[in-house]
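The following block was generated as part of the benchmark described in Methods. Ligand: D-ribose.
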Amino acid sequence: MIGLGCDHGGYELMQEVKKHLEERGLEYEDFGCYSRESTDYPIYARRVGKAILDGRCEKGILICGTGIGISITANKMPGIRAALCTDCFMAEATRQHNDANILAMGGRVVGPGLALKIVDTFLDTPFSNDERHKRRIYKIEHQEEE
Ligand code: RB5
């Protein structure tokens, strides 16, 4: 299950993402927003982050105008690793290296064609499971100095 969240700045692109996931036969849960009306991105970042931490969703996709505010918010939640991606290299690397559990994008930054390729890359790339990456992810959560 993929948790989806956006604000008004990401609403248009999120409609494309939903269509694409449906075409791929992938299940999602839509945590809003549900219109183009101005709203506050932290609401949706937290809803999706919580669904991942609860185990209700495996991964999430968050979209605001830039992808910045919504990813900053999600990354305040321990256990959430939200990656703001503007190309497929970033989407692939963040899955392999950071085991990112949320993809963040900017609806005013990437066009729909590229965005859907980023989505596919993010969803289809497994974590490498390399020891060095596991060690670094552990250090993200445990604030170790060395
Ligand atoms: C909303 O205007 C905009 O600030 C928001 O979508 C996002 O870009 C914030 O980081």
